[in-house]
Protein backbone atom coordinates (compact mmCIF):
# COMPACT_ATOMS: atom_id res chain seq x y z
CA UNK A 1 0.00 0.00 0.00
CA UNK A 2 1.56 3.23 -1.12
CA UNK A 3 -0.32 5.61 1.16
CA UNK A 4 2.95 7.17 2.30
CA UNK A 5 3.05 10.92 2.42
CA UNK A 6 5.13 12.19 -0.43
CA UNK A 7 4.27 9.36 -2.79
CA UNK A 8 0.69 10.57 -3.17
CA UNK A 9 -0.80 13.98 -3.86
CA UNK A 10 -1.79 15.61 -0.54
CA UNK A 11 -5.50 15.04 0.09
CA UNK A 12 -7.00 18.56 -0.07
CA UNK A 13 -9.49 17.74 2.71
CA UNK A 14 -6.54 17.64 5.16
CA UNK A 15 -5.26 21.09 4.17
CA UNK A 16 -6.50 23.01 7.21
CA UNK A 17 -5.13 20.37 9.60
CA UNK A 18 -1.71 20.43 7.93
CA UNK A 19 -1.67 24.20 8.21
CA UNK A 20 -2.42 23.98 11.94
CA UNK A 21 0.40 21.52 12.54
CA UNK A 22 2.89 23.61 10.61
CA UNK A 23 1.90 26.72 12.57
CA UNK A 24 2.15 24.85 15.89
CA UNK A 25 5.64 23.60 15.08
CA UNK A 26 6.80 27.06 13.96
CA UNK A 27 5.48 28.53 17.22
CA UNK A 28 7.14 25.80 19.31
CA UNK A 29 3.72 24.54 20.42
CA UNK A 30 3.61 21.16 18.74
CA UNK A 31 2.14 18.77 21.34
CA UNK A 32 3.89 15.50 22.23
CA UNK A 33 0.76 13.49 21.52
CA UNK A 34 -1.52 13.76 18.49
CA UNK A 35 -4.76 11.83 18.14
CA UNK A 36 -5.72 11.72 14.48
CA UNK A 37 -9.38 10.76 14.30
CA UNK A 38 -10.18 9.79 10.73
CA UNK A 39 -13.33 8.93 8.90
CA UNK A 40 -12.64 5.34 7.72
CA UNK A 41 -10.27 5.31 4.75
CA UNK A 42 -9.98 9.11 4.66
CA UNK A 43 -6.21 9.26 5.12
CA UNK A 44 -5.44 9.33 8.86
CA UNK A 45 -2.31 7.26 8.40
CA UNK A 46 -1.21 9.47 5.53
CA UNK A 47 -1.49 12.52 7.81
CA UNK A 48 0.45 10.69 10.54
CA UNK A 49 3.33 10.07 8.12
CA UNK A 50 3.09 13.65 6.91
CA UNK A 51 3.42 14.80 10.55
CA UNK A 52 6.52 12.62 10.94
CA UNK A 53 7.97 14.23 7.81
CA UNK A 54 7.13 17.64 9.23
CA UNK A 55 9.53 17.13 12.16
CA UNK A 56 12.10 14.89 10.41
CA UNK A 57 12.50 16.84 7.15
CA UNK A 58 16.03 18.06 6.50
CA UNK A 59 14.76 21.41 5.19
CA UNK A 60 12.94 22.87 8.21
CA UNK A 61 12.08 26.10 6.41
CA UNK A 62 9.95 24.22 3.87
CA UNK A 63 9.05 21.10 5.89
CA UNK A 64 7.89 18.68 4.82
CA UNK A 65 9.61 19.10 1.46
CA UNK A 66 8.80 15.52 0.42
CA UNK A 67 12.10 15.13 -1.44
CA UNK A 68 14.94 15.08 1.10
CA UNK A 69 16.39 11.88 2.51
CA UNK A 70 14.43 12.34 5.75
CA UNK A 71 11.09 12.75 3.97
CA UNK A 72 11.72 9.83 1.63
CA UNK A 73 12.75 7.53 4.47
CA UNK A 74 9.58 8.41 6.39
CA UNK A 75 7.47 7.73 3.30
CA UNK A 76 9.13 4.31 3.03
CA UNK A 77 8.67 3.84 6.81
CA UNK A 78 12.42 3.27 7.11
CA UNK A 79 13.56 6.36 8.97
CA UNK A 80 15.75 5.43 11.95
CA UNK A 81 13.94 8.00 14.14
CA UNK A 82 10.47 6.73 13.21
CA UNK A 83 8.84 3.73 14.85
CA UNK A 84 5.64 2.51 13.22
CA UNK A 85 3.49 0.26 15.39
CA UNK A 86 0.53 -1.72 14.08
CA UNK A 87 -0.96 -5.15 14.87
CA UNK A 88 1.41 -7.95 13.96
CA UNK A 89 0.49 -10.40 11.25
CA UNK A 90 -2.38 -12.66 12.29
CA UNK A 91 -3.34 -10.40 15.20
CA UNK A 92 -5.95 -7.67 15.49
CA UNK A 93 -4.37 -6.06 18.53
CA UNK A 94 -1.32 -3.97 19.33
CA UNK A 95 0.28 -5.82 22.23
CA UNK A 96 1.92 -4.43 25.37
CA UNK A 97 5.37 -5.70 24.29
CA UNK A 98 5.18 -3.59 21.13
CA UNK A 99 4.31 -0.47 23.16
CA UNK A 100 7.15 -1.15 25.62
CA UNK A 101 9.60 -1.48 22.74
CA UNK A 102 8.33 1.81 21.35
CA UNK A 103 8.76 3.47 24.76
CA UNK A 104 12.35 2.20 25.00
CA UNK A 105 13.12 3.35 21.45
CA UNK A 106 11.85 6.86 22.19
CA UNK A 107 14.24 7.27 25.13
CA UNK A 108 17.26 6.67 22.86
CA UNK A 109 19.09 9.61 21.32
CA UNK A 110 17.77 10.63 17.93
CA UNK A 111 19.96 9.61 14.97
CA UNK A 112 19.40 12.93 13.26
CA UNK A 113 19.80 15.03 16.39
CA UNK A 114 16.17 16.10 16.30
CA UNK A 115 12.80 14.50 16.86
CA UNK A 116 11.90 10.90 17.51
CA UNK A 117 8.48 9.85 16.26
CA UNK A 118 6.18 6.96 17.10
CA UNK A 119 3.05 6.23 15.05
CA UNK A 120 0.40 3.79 16.32
CA UNK A 121 -2.08 2.78 13.64
CA UNK A 122 -4.79 1.79 14.05
CA UNK A 123 -4.56 2.86 17.69
CA UNK A 124 -8.12 1.54 18.20
CA UNK A 125 -6.41 -1.85 18.23
CA UNK A 126 -4.39 -1.15 21.39
CA UNK A 127 -5.58 -3.61 23.99
CA UNK A 128 -6.16 -2.36 27.54
CA UNK A 129 -2.71 -3.33 28.82
CA UNK A 130 -0.98 -1.80 25.82
CA UNK A 131 -2.97 1.44 26.24
CA UNK A 132 -1.90 1.65 29.90
CA UNK A 133 1.72 1.12 28.93
CA UNK A 134 1.39 3.89 26.34
CA UNK A 135 -0.03 6.21 28.98
CA UNK A 136 3.31 6.13 30.82
CA UNK A 137 5.10 7.42 27.73
CA UNK A 138 2.43 10.06 27.14
CA UNK A 139 2.68 11.26 30.74
CA UNK A 140 6.44 11.75 30.68
CA UNK A 141 7.47 12.07 27.05
CA UNK A 142 11.19 12.55 26.41
CA UNK A 143 11.94 15.99 24.91
CA UNK A 144 11.39 16.27 21.14
CA UNK A 145 9.12 13.26 20.99
CA UNK A 146 6.06 13.07 18.77
CA UNK A 147 3.55 10.28 19.33
CA UNK A 148 0.78 9.99 16.75
CA UNK A 149 -2.26 7.79 17.33
CA UNK A 150 -4.48 7.11 14.34
CA UNK A 151 -8.02 6.06 15.24
CA UNK A 152 -11.45 5.76 13.70
CA UNK A 153 -13.22 5.11 17.01
CA UNK A 154 -11.54 7.05 19.85
CA UNK A 155 -14.13 5.70 22.31
CA UNK A 156 -12.14 2.46 22.28
CA UNK A 157 -9.22 4.26 23.96
CA UNK A 158 -9.08 5.02 27.69
CA UNK A 159 -10.04 8.63 28.51
CA UNK A 160 -6.67 9.01 30.24
CA UNK A 161 -4.88 8.41 26.92
CA UNK A 162 -7.19 10.73 24.98
CA UNK A 163 -6.73 13.55 27.50
CA UNK A 164 -2.95 13.48 26.92
CA UNK A 165 -3.29 14.10 23.20
CA UNK A 166 -4.45 16.86 20.94
CA UNK A 167 -7.20 15.74 18.59
CA UNK A 168 -7.05 16.33 14.85
CA UNK A 169 -9.95 15.25 12.68
CA UNK A 170 -9.71 13.95 9.14
CA UNK A 171 -13.20 14.23 7.72
CA UNK A 172 -14.65 12.07 4.97
CA UNK A 173 -14.09 13.78 1.63
CA UNK A 174 -16.94 14.63 -0.71
CA UNK A 175 -17.44 12.39 -3.72
CA UNK A 176 -15.96 15.07 -5.99
CA UNK A 177 -12.89 15.44 -3.77
CA UNK A 178 -12.38 11.65 -3.68
CA UNK A 179 -12.68 11.30 -7.45
CA UNK A 180 -10.30 14.17 -8.20
CA UNK A 181 -7.73 12.90 -5.74
CA UNK A 182 -7.92 9.25 -6.87
CA UNK A 183 -7.58 10.31 -10.49
CA UNK A 184 -4.49 12.38 -9.62
CA UNK A 185 -3.03 9.55 -7.53
CA UNK A 186 -3.50 6.64 -9.93
CA UNK A 187 -5.13 7.74 -13.18
CA UNK A 188 -8.49 6.82 -14.67
CA UNK A 189 -10.11 3.70 -13.19
CA UNK A 190 -13.66 2.75 -12.15
CA UNK A 191 -13.27 4.82 -8.98
CA UNK A 192 -16.93 5.85 -8.75
CA UNK A 193 -18.13 2.24 -8.73
CA UNK A 194 -15.57 1.32 -6.06
CA UNK A 195 -16.60 4.33 -3.92
CA UNK A 196 -20.25 3.30 -4.33
CA UNK A 197 -19.36 -0.02 -2.74
CA UNK A 198 -16.81 1.00 -0.13
CA UNK A 199 -18.14 4.44 0.80
CA UNK A 200 -16.21 7.73 0.78
CA UNK A 201 -12.97 5.98 1.71
CA UNK A 202 -10.52 6.89 -1.06
CA UNK A 203 -7.48 5.47 0.72
CA UNK A 204 -9.23 2.09 1.09
CA UNK A 205 -10.27 2.25 -2.56
CA UNK A 206 -6.73 3.09 -3.63
CA UNK A 207 -5.30 0.19 -1.61
CA UNK A 208 -7.47 -2.34 -3.47
CA UNK A 209 -8.29 -3.19 -7.04
CA UNK A 210 -11.18 -0.95 -8.16
CA UNK A 211 -12.03 -3.23 -11.09
CA UNK A 212 -12.37 -6.25 -8.78
CA UNK A 213 -14.41 -4.23 -6.28
CA UNK A 214 -16.74 -2.95 -9.00
CA UNK A 215 -17.16 -6.47 -10.41
CA UNK A 216 -17.84 -8.04 -6.97
CA UNK A 217 -20.31 -5.24 -6.24
CA UNK A 218 -22.31 -5.71 -9.40
CA UNK A 219 -22.31 -9.48 -8.88
CA UNK A 220 -23.55 -9.03 -5.30
CA UNK A 221 -26.21 -6.60 -6.46
CA UNK A 222 -27.48 -9.01 -9.12
CA UNK A 223 -27.64 -11.80 -6.54
CA UNK A 224 -29.56 -9.64 -4.05
CA UNK A 225 -32.03 -8.45 -6.68
CA UNK A 226 -32.56 -12.07 -7.73
CA UNK A 227 -33.05 -13.22 -4.14
CA UNK A 228 -35.54 -10.43 -3.53
CA UNK A 229 -37.47 -11.43 -6.63
CA UNK A 230 -37.52 -15.09 -5.63
CA UNK A 231 -35.31 -15.99 -8.57
CA UNK A 232 -32.26 -17.29 -6.70
CA UNK A 233 -31.53 -20.11 -4.31
CA UNK A 234 -30.56 -18.78 -0.84
CA UNK A 235 -28.51 -21.89 -0.03
CA UNK A 236 -26.39 -21.83 -3.18
CA UNK A 237 -25.93 -18.05 -3.04
CA UNK A 238 -24.87 -18.19 0.62
CA UNK A 239 -22.34 -20.90 -0.14
CA UNK A 240 -20.93 -18.91 -3.03
CA UNK A 241 -20.62 -15.74 -0.96
CA UNK A 242 -19.01 -17.52 1.97
CA UNK A 243 -16.33 -18.89 -0.34
CA UNK A 244 -14.87 -15.64 -1.67
CA UNK A 245 -14.77 -11.89 -1.07
CA UNK A 246 -17.24 -12.21 1.81
CA UNK A 247 -16.33 -8.95 3.61
CA UNK A 248 -16.69 -7.02 0.36
CA UNK A 249 -19.99 -8.71 -0.50
CA UNK A 250 -21.36 -7.96 2.97
CA UNK A 251 -20.44 -4.32 2.48
CA UNK A 252 -22.43 -4.42 -0.76
CA UNK A 253 -25.32 -6.07 1.07
CA UNK A 254 -25.36 -3.30 3.68
CA UNK A 255 -25.28 -0.66 0.98
CA UNK A 256 -28.02 -2.38 -1.01
CA UNK A 257 -30.24 -2.37 2.09
CA UNK A 258 -29.52 1.25 3.04
CA UNK A 259 -30.30 2.33 -0.52
CA UNK A 260 -33.71 0.72 -0.17
CA UNK A 261 -34.27 2.48 3.14
CA UNK A 262 -33.36 5.82 1.58
CA UNK A 263 -35.64 5.29 -1.38
CA UNK A 264 -38.49 4.24 0.89
CA UNK A 265 -37.97 7.35 3.00
CA UNK A 266 -37.74 9.59 -0.04
CA UNK A 267 -41.02 8.17 -1.29
CA UNK A 268 -42.74 8.95 2.00
CA UNK A 269 -43.19 5.33 2.99
CA UNK A 270 -41.66 5.76 6.43
CA UNK A 271 -42.75 2.92 8.68
CA UNK A 272 -45.13 1.74 6.02
CA UNK A 273 -45.01 -1.26 3.79
CA UNK A 274 -42.83 -0.74 0.77
CA UNK A 275 -44.31 -2.31 -2.31
CA UNK A 276 -42.56 -2.94 -5.53
CA UNK A 277 -42.98 -0.21 -8.04
CA UNK A 278 -40.96 1.18 -10.89
CA UNK A 279 -38.64 2.77 -8.33
CA UNK A 280 -37.78 -0.63 -6.85
CA UNK A 281 -37.37 -2.57 -10.03
CA UNK A 282 -35.96 -5.97 -9.29
CA UNK A 283 -36.09 -5.34 -5.56
CA UNK A 284 -38.04 -7.24 -2.97
CA UNK A 285 -41.75 -6.85 -3.62
CA UNK A 286 -42.61 -6.31 0.04
CA UNK A 287 -40.08 -5.31 2.64
CA UNK A 288 -41.14 -3.49 5.74
CA UNK A 289 -38.82 -0.61 6.55
CA UNK A 290 -38.36 -1.89 10.10
CA UNK A 291 -37.29 -5.20 8.65
CA UNK A 292 -34.80 -3.37 6.41
CA UNK A 293 -33.29 -1.66 9.46
CA UNK A 294 -33.16 -4.98 11.31
CA UNK A 295 -31.41 -6.59 8.35
CA UNK A 296 -28.85 -3.76 8.20
CA UNK A 297 -28.05 -4.32 11.89
CA UNK A 298 -27.66 -8.03 11.37
CA UNK A 299 -25.43 -7.62 8.31
CA UNK A 300 -23.25 -5.22 10.33
CA UNK A 301 -23.12 -7.72 13.16
CA UNK A 302 -22.01 -10.43 10.76
CA UNK A 303 -19.34 -8.12 9.29
CA UNK A 304 -18.02 -7.32 12.76
CA UNK A 305 -17.73 -10.97 13.75
CA UNK A 306 -16.23 -12.38 10.58
CA UNK A 307 -13.15 -13.60 12.43
CA UNK A 308 -15.25 -15.52 14.96
CA UNK A 309 -15.54 -19.16 13.97
CA UNK A 310 -19.12 -19.81 12.93
CA UNK A 311 -20.97 -21.22 10.03
CA UNK A 312 -21.12 -18.14 7.84
CA UNK A 313 -23.04 -19.95 5.15
CA UNK A 314 -25.86 -20.72 7.57
CA UNK A 315 -25.96 -17.16 8.94
CA UNK A 316 -26.06 -15.73 5.40
CA UNK A 317 -28.70 -18.17 4.24
CA UNK A 318 -30.96 -17.08 7.11
CA UNK A 319 -30.56 -13.43 6.06
CA UNK A 320 -31.19 -14.25 2.39
CA UNK A 321 -34.39 -16.12 3.18
CA UNK A 322 -35.85 -12.95 4.67
CA UNK A 323 -35.41 -11.16 1.34
CA UNK A 324 -37.50 -13.72 -0.50
CA UNK A 325 -41.03 -12.68 -1.46
ZN1 LIG B 1 12.10 16.94 3.51
Structure explained in plain terms:
This protein has 325 residues and is of the alpha/beta class. It is 50% helix and 8% strand. The protein is built from 14 helices and five strands. It has a five-stranded parallel β-sheet with strand order 2-3-4-1-5, sandwiched between helices. Helix 5 links the parallel strand 3 (116-120) and strand 4. Helix 1 runs parallel beside helix 2. Bound molecules: zinc ion (ZN). Zinc ion is lined by residues 57-59, 64-65, 68, 70-71.
What is the global morphology?
elongated
- The number of E-state strands comes to 5
Bound small molecules, by name, code or SMILES, are: zinc ion
What amount of the residues lies in strands? 5-15%
Structural class, by secondary structure, is alpha/beta
Count of alpha and pi helical runs:
14
| Chain oligomer state | single chain
Q: Describe the main β-sheet briefly.
A: 5 strands, parallel
Give the neighbour order of strands across the main sheet.
2-3-4-1-5
Overall pLDDT level: 88
Q: Would you identify the regions where 5 or more consecutive residues have pLDDT less than 50?
A: 270-285
Rg calculated over all Cα atoms: 23 Å
Give the ordered list of helices and strands: HEHHEHEHEHEHHHHHHHH
Distance separating the two termini: 43 Å
Question: Helical amount among residues, as a percent range?
Answer: 40-55%
Amino acid sequence: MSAAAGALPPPPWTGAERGQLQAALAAGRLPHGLLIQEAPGAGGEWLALWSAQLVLCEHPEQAPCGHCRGCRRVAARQHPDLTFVSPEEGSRQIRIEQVRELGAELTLTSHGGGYKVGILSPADSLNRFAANALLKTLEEPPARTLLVLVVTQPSRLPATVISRTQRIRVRAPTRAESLTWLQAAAGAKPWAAALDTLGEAPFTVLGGDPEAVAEAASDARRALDALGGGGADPVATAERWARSELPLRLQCFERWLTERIRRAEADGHLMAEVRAGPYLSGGPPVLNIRELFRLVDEVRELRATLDVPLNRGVALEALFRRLAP
